[in-house]
């Protein structure tokens, strides 16, 4: 048995402290079949929105979503049409949308954001391909470095969250479809 001998004259603050245990890396469940995801990103405020994509890609890989194709569109308003066309190909098991909707007039950007979200829901229900949204509309957005930094961090968080939601939904659908095929759920 190894014992650490301590010089009685050594002060407690000088004694090497054991390392703080890190949270173990959580092992996420694997998919029965490979999943292919389309990530549709608006280019408006790209430096902010791309933080969601970067974080999504990292978290998606950790969750065994390794086939992700990225598509860029000019703005959030163009996302639903791309999502619909991608869903209709049947090549993708899920579609993720990311965009930042800002405008000087409160009614306009709220209208755009609401329209985009409703259209994405319609795509999902019409095609039975799940569509996830990281299309965000801040109440107040000022083109200052402080706001840009805040929203970059916020989009990174949303990227992780949307990857988790995507993976968990695809696992749930995989189980449900297996149960339907086995006649357990009818």
From TrEMBL:
Pathway: Cofactor biosynthesis; riboflavin biosynthesis; riboflavin from 2-hydroxy-3-oxobutyl phosphate and 5-amino-6-(D-ribitylamino)uracil: step 1/2. Keywords: Riboflavin biosynthesis, Transferase. Its EC number is 2.5.1.78. SUPFAM superfamilies: Lumazine synthase. The keyword Transferase applies. Pfam families: DMRL_synthase (PF00885). Residues 1-12 have a biased composition (Polar residues). It is an enzyme of class 2 (transferase). (2S)-2-hydroxy-3-oxobutyl phosphate binds at residue 147. The active site is at residue 108. GO terms for cellular component: cytosol; riboflavin synthase complex. Signal peptide: none annotated. It catalyses: (2S)-2-hydroxy-3-oxobutyl phosphate + 5-amino-6-(D-ribitylamino)uracil = 6,7-dimethyl-8-(1-D-ribityl)lumazine + phosphate + 2 H2O + H(+). GO terms for molecular function: 6,7-dimethyl-8-ribityllumazine synthase activity. Residues 1-27 are annotated as: Disordered. 5-amino-6-(D-ribitylamino)uracil binds at residues 44, 76-78, 100-102, 133. InterPro entries: LS (IPR034964), LS/RS (IPR002180), LS/RS_sf (IPR036467). It comes from the Bacteria. HAMAP family: Lumazine_synth. Catalyzes the formation of 6,7-dimethyl-8-ribityllumazine by condensation of 5-amino-6-(D-ribitylamino)uracil with 3,4-dihydroxy-2-butanone 4-phosphate. This is the penultimate step in the biosynthesis of riboflavin. This is 6,7-dimethyl-8-ribityllumazine synthase. It comes from Bradyrhizobium stylosanthis. The gene is ribH.
